[in-house]
Amino acid sequence: MAVLKTMRDSARNKMDTVLLGAMIGLVVLGALCIMSAVNSLSFSNAIVRTHLVALPMGLCAFAIGWSFNYQIYNEQWKWVYGVILALLVGVLLFGSYQRGSRSWFVLPFFSMQPSEICRICTLLVVAAFLDRRGRAIYDTSTLFWLCVLLAPVFGLIMMQPDFSSVVVTLPAIAVLLYCAGANLFYLGLGALLAATAGFFTLGWTYLYLHPELTEQGVGRVFYLLAHNGWYIAGFCVFVGMLGWAAWWFCKQLRIFLPTLYFILATLAVLAGLAGGIFVENHMKPHQRKRVETFLAPRSDPQGAGYNVLQAQIAMGSGGVLGKGLFSGTQSRLGFVPEKHTDFILAVAGEELGLWGMLLVLGLYLTILWRTVWVAYQSSDRYGYLVCAGIFGMFFTYMLVNFGMLLGIVPVAGIPLPFISYGGSNLVSSLWALGVVQSVYARRIGV
């Protein structure tokens, strides 16, 4: 008995059982929701079979992430970076073209989306880079070299193109920078760039919905910013003058900020415009429909707004207790689109009700809480940063999926890990939690 007690205590010291329990709970709920969502589909057997193949592979990835010393990724970060580039180049050369992007390796028994694995690897590499910078994290050169490091990765991802991977990875990297102690001004620049690009993208999409606004006035000028070089040049001059005026005004008030700050802020706005133009010119029709749905879901209930509205109807019809597993009428009758991937939460809400949704949310919040707790218990800075990046990734997943269903976030085609169907995402997510467990197993005092 004493030997068994010692073994149990040792296992408890080497693994966060609360995190493990939350993970198992989500995996079980996800399997049930997927089987229920596809039960009425003609190809349900293929989906269930693929999920049942991915599940043991994911558990093996979790075990590998837990058993390997996470510090090896810090020591061998250049090799990890090489694997990222090799996978992303390989999928462009040999990948299968599906749904408008070349993002998949089709293997004999299953398919693999390398960007899912590369996302975790990218966080491990960025954490290693920031760990080596130490106190130099405040230097401008740190941000510059980080951009140089990430440019090939995001460039290859955008060549597929796979916007959803960028949407999930960038916020996680921002969390990493914040936790590493980066200058808040530079984080603000990133937020300014993203906000500017988002503003132009949403604005131009709104004009597509209301073409009468492009005939004259401000709407006409705003529309031409995406299509006329002279207007773009004039906007650049205007932003430059605003930056100079802000510098002069602060100087008169004896607010002595570095001149570089004003230059970088001006460049961030212009880069946001360039990013918005790029998205505008490369946005596929189904992606534009998603933005239109976000701006006006009820303006076209049978078209652009159909997905979100039907998902909300299904979720609301479940009430507090739900209709029961395999008993959701909205999902089983085919009203909810992409019900086993993007809108799996609608199935959970209809069949498990409010309590089921709260259970899913509670388990996700538990994973986030324990990841933060492990970060603070880590024995070195690298472990802390790795946990911070994984926290940022899962937080983004949760925010986008719940926000998408509520209509406060555009439909982005991003799965909800452990719940949505997707073998590559399941394997990579379980591996990420295995790495967190590795940090826990080697924490302070063990």
Q: What structural class results from the helix and strand content?
A: mainly alpha
Please bin the fraction of helical residues.
Answer: over 70%
> How many separate helices?
18
The profile of the biggest β sheet is: 3 strands, antiparallel
Shape: globular
Structure summarized in a few sentences:
By secondary structure, this protein is an all-alpha fold. It has 18 helices and 3 strands.
Would you give an account of this structure?
Helix 9 runs parallel beside helix 12. By secondary structure, the chain is mainly alpha-helical. Strand 2 and strand 3 (111-112) form a beta hairpin. Strands 1-2-3 form a three-stranded antiparallel beta sheet, with helices on one face. The two termini are 23 Å apart. Helices cover 73% and strands 2% of the residues. It has one domain.
Give me some keywords for this one.
single chain, 2% strand, 446 residues, 18 helices
